[in-house]
Amino acid sequence: MGFPHDHDLEIGTILSRHFGDPKARELDTWLTYGGYEGLKQAVEMDPGEITTIVKDSGLRGRGGAGFPTGLKWSFMPQEKSGPHYLCCNADESEPGAFKDREILRWVPHLLIEGCLIAARAIRAEHAYIYVRGEYFPFTSILNDAVVEAYEAGYIGRDILGSGWDCDLTVHIGAGAYIAGEETGLMSSLTGGRAEPKIKPPFPAQSGVFGKPTTVNNVETLAAVPMILINGADWYRQWGTEKSPGTKLWCCSGHLVRPGNYELELGVPLKDVIYDVCGGAPDGKKIKAVIPGGSSTAMLTADELDVPSTYEGLQEAGSSLGTASPIVLNEDTNIVRAMRRIADFYAHESCGQCVQCREGTSWVAKILKRIEDGDGRLSDLDTLYDLCEQLTGRTICVLADSVVFPLRSSLDKFRDEYEALIGGRA
Amino acid sequence: MSPKIEISLNGSTVEADASATVLEVALEHDLFVPHLCHHPDLEPAGVCRLCLVEVDGRMVTACNTPVTAGAKIRTDTPTVQQTRLGAVELLLVNHHGGTIDCEEGEACDLNRIARFVGADEARLGRYRPPDRTLPVDGSNPFFTFDPGLCVLCGICVRTCDEIVGVAAIDFVKRGFDTTIGSAPGKQWIDSDCVSCGECVERCPTGSLSFTGFETPEYEVTTTCTYCGCGCGIHLGVSGDRIVSARGQRENPSNEGRLCVKGRFGFTFVNSPERLTTPLIRRNGALEEATWDEALDLVAARFSAARGDAFAAIASAKLTNEENYLIQKFSRAVMGTNNVDHCARLCHSPSVAGLVQSFGSGAMTSSSKDLGDARCIFAIGTNTTAAHPIIGLQIMRSIRAGGRLIVANPREIELARHADLFIQHRAGSDVALLMGMMRVIVEEGLHDPEFIESRCENFEAFQESLAEYDDATVEEKTGVPFAKIAEAARMYAENSPAAILYAMGITQHTHGTDNVLATSNLAMLTGNVGVPSGGVNPLRGQSNVQGACDMGALPNVYPGYQKVELPEVRAKFEQAWGADLDDAPGLTHLEILRGVTAGPIRAIYLVGENPALSEADATHAREAMEKVDFLVVQDIFLTESAEYADVVLPAASFAEKDGTFTNTERRVQRVRKVIPPVGESRSDAWITCEIARRMGASGFEFESAEAVMEEIASLTPSYGGITHDRIDQVGLQWPCPDPSHPGTRYLHAETFPRPGGRGRFVPLEYRPPDEEPDAEYPLVLTTERSLYHYHTATMTRRVPGLETLRSEELVEIHPRDAVELQIASGDRVRVTSRRGEVEAHALVTEASPPGTISMTFHFHESPTNVLTNAAWDPVAKIPETKVCAVRVERA
Ligand SMILES: Cc1cc2nc3c(=O)[nH]c(=O)nc-3n(C[C@H](O)[C@H](O)[C@H](O)COP(=O)(O)O)c2cc1C
Ligand code: SF4
Ligand code: SF4
Ligand code: SF4
Ligand code: FES
Predict the structure, then answer these.
(1) Does residue B203 have its Cβ closer than 6 Å to ligand 3?
(2) Exposure winner among A122, A211, B371, B827, fewest CB in 10 A?
(3) Which ligand 5 atom is the nearest neighbour of the CA of B51?
(4) What is d(CA B202, CA B555) in angstroms, rounded to the nearest whole number?
(5) B400 CA distance to ligand 2 centroid (A)?
(6) Ligand 4 contacts CB of residue B392 (under 6 A)
């Protein structure tokens, strides 16, 4: 899978314009594409000015939660009393998501430039890119680019003669989904087990090495250079008031043309599924779509006519997440699909919180016995009960992540569950 | 005190500490909020999620949410209740064999919580749990881990990290398979665990539980007999046996914490090998005798050896009262100042050096205050092994952001935690410290005001620094000068800075100079007379401070009052009703030498084992063999007792009353926990009985308390100490009168020297007595194992400690090992000019190239046969830390 794929929606691509062009990885070529122009501006600017532009652009975090990026940066202390750090979250492990991978692999300099601009905005002297262990092959591409950028003076001492210093380190994770949760990431980065931590303290107060830290997703940071160069209004020409700009989609499942597409936010979800990706192959009907990656609520085929914005999908009872729709056709066994999802979360729970460690595993076990024909109707009550237990009670939202697809599948496809149970009480 | 605020707790308005958490406030108001992962000693982790309550309508974990003024807290809403019940059910199903009433009963917090939330076993069935039996990890000799009972609260993990600083364990694996351990598939014993049992003590469920302990009938509070940390312990008794141990939380020296020896090391007391009757040598063999026979014989023979033919060697394992009695006996009854004890071999330079510079030879700070130091400079101390509970204060200091500088020829455990680790050549301390001081002065980092107003002799000292130029210091220490300069700056720029040292400083022919160097450094930077700073000799044995304070030293009466001062002597002559000798007596080594080349004909050896502990031990054995009359008073038939003419069975620390003074000058109670084993008697009783049979008066004490009254009347710094006052918590000397609260840190305003000023002493570098050469190309340095104590007469009789470390190991650097074709586990022979010893080798980078290291705990490999008895001219301590050896495969 992956890029390039053609599609006929007209947008000015920000992130993916050079996907598929191996020369774009090289600094020389990248400079001819306008690379590091944003950084040149940034080093002349006051950190606060950069943050304001990003705030005005309405850019929202692409790691799943959609938190306004400029606002997050503004939480960092304005006065420094010690080092600040930036962490770029490249742990991308959510089932269905494979967008950050493409950025690492095709346009590493775009990411580096984004990291540096963000680092300047939050007054950080060191940026870390935490890359998912399984992305090892792409890490060498990134590392090559980092070396080039260091040599060319875009990273390191006295960047572009501005007197500003900033280092950048690529750190390879060891393969845990939970290392993608920001506090788990920081713990893993500093040598601990990837374990989310209770807040407060928030990362902007005490993060990496106990110092103020901002964590941003790869795609978020990659959007920053163009915003800085072209301005907030330019970015707002796409999308809606609350969800401006473009978004990299990761479309997978039963589709004719699965893959990555950079689309304007607000495109109706059904257009993404049917027009861009060509709907389900072999003339099959679509049964359900999990729109934002495996941690979002399922929509039925009848519910797809929603604008693909943060607010639009929320109104539809789901969420945009990482914009990674997983499409299930009419032949799909929903219980089995759900069990596969639950297995993932049960396996990836870091094991600290009682409800998550125990609950996700019971969800997986109960689904498995229903799938295997050993279910009882009372199991459905227990599953609903577990949905309660797993909602809003744990340190991080990994526990909640299993609830969204689970509850929606129970609500919307109860008949499939009951059919497998066959009336046993 | 933080300000009070008002909050609403389930509808009623209550007052709360503004700095408290919701959980603390609720518990304080007797409102139980279930919690499993909260522990008052630890930072909140918020992982069990049982303490969720509603604050202003929002669900939050009570254990980490601070109260705010006006907050509306509800712990009784249906959501809160349903949340608790759900979580408890989930725990019970997988972690308690699906039952509510597990065998742990009330001791298990989950049990109590399950009852509190009204968990119903019947409801657990809906999960249809499969059988799950997880193997119990019994690999540690002192405790077991049963994952089947573990609720994964992480208290053990955080204890090991936050308090112990070892971080031996963590959560292992993920999700449902999560467990506690060091790595998947590894057993507890394979981890870095130091078996302190702190995690077991805090485990809320009994998942971690002590193996050897029994539920005691009652507990007696006393002081640990092992190291100078002097921890308060509650010993549990069943019948006449010690069956458990627990730290005393109210005791500031340890605040409830214990190390492996202090928690598990007391089974020696009930060992079948205890001496239970007196022994007399008849026809070459030690035979059982009655007390009357033995004491009469001793009294008769001692009577014939009055004066300088007699010498007593007391012990830092005895109480203050006993040391007092032994020196009084020697001086008043035997008419000689020939009394010394093992402090000669460990910390005599501390007394000699610190008295010279500060006027008082003791740790200046309190143990607990060390945790608040902004910088700790640990030189020549393997604190985590030899003073584990003070080691915990180092951990506390670095956790709070304090700097740690470690200087040690060996890469000890602490090095891993250090901001700077300086691996200097054994014996090069003066060069290192003077080099640091030169940097401090040159860069203006010293404290001229302190020097000017509180010290003397600075100019002469300053001149002596010139000699320590970069090149010289580098050459002597083998450390790049830049690093030494960095250490100097780190120490000088982070105040209060505390220097900690132990025998790495003292056991040298220039031990006193080393000590003087540390006090110079502390004065130079104004780090004396402040809490959490100063110079802190970590005294080795439980009562080494007290034994010195009590005058078990040849040159001073109790309280360091000099024997040669007429007014002092007059005071003691009057108090004791005897004529006293005005010449200082012989020191430890001199006493033994005095047998072969001097006047010594009778030795009274109490609680000491020179056969293993004395440098050049072969000579010590020869002396003991040769002396006319040797009385050994001990709890076991030690290697030295085998040379005795009479062996007197002593009661252990757990069988008598008295006091110990720990390294931070805290005088604490030692209590009779069980009756003396067999016919053994307290050392105090024995000494008094010998004196009585020799016709002396002044030894008719009814109790240890009465002895302390006499001590207090003659020892100014103990003037205010009575057993009554230290019933619960000890007092730190100086404590001159009954209303004095004791002294937390020394020299706050003046130094107890003539003129009241601290004295700088110029120092000249002197190399160790014996340096490696072609024949003996390696340096041998000695160390201690955490698991053993001194000559291990006690610890090797504790089976678990013997399991954790059962033999001598010659630690050797890989480079030397390769050259000598030695691998770990090979049997090697170590030879010095004085003897040879065999042991197994351990190839490790902890030892620097060119230096090997051994303990002196194991009689099978008596390390001190190798060591050099050349001594410091002032303190007369032998150079146990450096000698030249050769190593070859045996
Ligand atoms: C269980 C879990 C896994 C996560 N994994 C990722 C991830 O792989 N990549 C990512 O960018 N954010 C991930 N997040 C979100 C991060 O916590 C964080 O919100 C995000 O990196 C912030 O970046 P943004 O503001 O740019 O979106 C995860 C969150 C949770 C709870
Ligand atoms: S919710 Fe799950 S993954 Fe997140 S911290 Fe708790 S146990 Fe770990
Ligand atoms: S062993 Fe005890 S302290 Fe450790 S996690 Fe389990 S229950 Fe908690
Ligand atoms: S016994 Fe001590 S060292 Fe061992 S795991 Fe427990 S706390 Fe850590
Ligand atoms: S006690 Fe608060 S989460 Fe465990």
Answers:
(1) yes
(2) B827
(3) 2
(4) 48
(5) 27
(6) no
Cβ distance B370 to B383 under 8 Å?
no
Selecting from A358, A361, A395 the residue whose C-beta is nearest the C-beta of B47 gives: A395
Residues near B229 by Cβ (< 8 Å), separated by ≥ 6?
A: B253, B254, B259, B262, B367, B387, B388, B389, B390, B662, B663
Find the angle CA(A47)-CA(A50)-CA(A52) to the nearest 5 degrees: 110
Q: Does B152 contact ligand 3 (Cβ within 6 A)? A: yes
Q: What spacing in Å lies between the alpha carbon of B36 and ligand 5's midpoint? A: 6
C-alpha torsion B651→B654→B655→B659, nearest 10 = 90
Judged by its nearest atom, the ligand closest to the C-alpha of residue A103 is 1
| All domains of chain B in start order, with CATH | 4-127 (3.10.20.740), 143-210 (3.30.70.20), 279-346+543-664+677-694 (3.40.50.740), 348-537 (3.40.228.10), 778-889 (2.40.40.20)
Secondary element (H or E) of residue B116: helix B109-117
In b/e form, how buried is each residue of B427-457, taking b as 16+ CB within 10 angstroms? bbbbbbbbbbbbbbbeeebbbeebbeebbbe
Closest CA to B879 of B834, B837, B842, B847: B834
Cβ of A382 and B49 within 8 Å? no
In what helix (H) or strand (E) does residue B369 lie, and over which residues does it extend? helix B367-370
What would the pLDDT profile of A118-144 be if each residue is shown by its tens digit?
A: 999 999 999 999 999 999 989 999 999
Cα A177 to ligand 1 centroid, rounded to whole Å: 10
In order of start, what are the domains of chain A with their CATH numbers? Answer: 22-236 (3.40.50.11540), 246-329 (3.10.20.600), 334-421 (1.20.1440.230)
Name the band, by pLDDT with cuts 50, 70 and 90, for residue A3: very low
Only one residue has tokens 């009972």, namely: B149
Q: What band does B693 get if pLDDT is binned at 50, 70 and 90? A: very high
Q: Which tokens go with B878?
A: 């032998």
Contact partners, residue A73, CB within 8 Å, separation at least 6? A51, A54, A55, A118, A121, A122, A214
Residues of A in contact with B110 (CB under 8 A): none
**Nearest C-alpha of chain A: how many angstroms from B419?**
15
What is residue B65's DSSP assignment?
A: P
The tokens describing B151, both together, are 């609720």
Question: What distance in Å separates the CA atoms of residue B152 and residue A351, rounded to the nearest whole number?
Answer: 8
Q: How far is the CA of B398 from the centre of ligand 2 (A)?
A: 29
Over residues B379-391, the mean pLDDT reads 93
Chain B interface, mutation test: which of A193, A352, A395, A400, most B Cβ atoms within 10 Å?
A352
Closest CA to B578 of B864, B336, B287: B336
Contact B90 A389 (CB under 8 A): yes
Judge: B152–A361 Cβ closer than 8 Å, yes or no. no
CA–CA gap between residue B882 and residue B769 (Å, rounded): 8
Burial letters for B730-755: b for 16+ Cβ neighbours within 10 Å, e otherwise? bbbbbbbeeeeebbbbbbeeebebee
Cβ–Cβ < 8 Å for B685, B679: no
CA distance B655 to B676: 5
> Rounded to two decimals, what is the model's pTM?
0.92
* CB–CB contact B86 A385 (8 Å): yes
- Tell me, using a 6 A CB cutoff, whether residue A277 lines ligand 2: no
pLDDT at residue A409, as a whole number: 98
Question: What average pLDDT score do residues B187-214 get?
Answer: 93
Q: How many helical (H) and strand (E) elements, i.e. helices and strands, does chain B have?
A: 30, 39
DSSP string, B621-661: HHHHHHSSEEEEEESS--TTGGG-SEEEEBP-GGGS-EEEE
Q: Do B59 and A195 touch (CB under 8 A)?
A: no
- Rounded-to-integer distance, Cα A155 and Cα B883, Å: 53
Contact: A389, B174; criterion CB under 8 Å: no
Of B93, B127, B152, the CB nearest to A351: B152
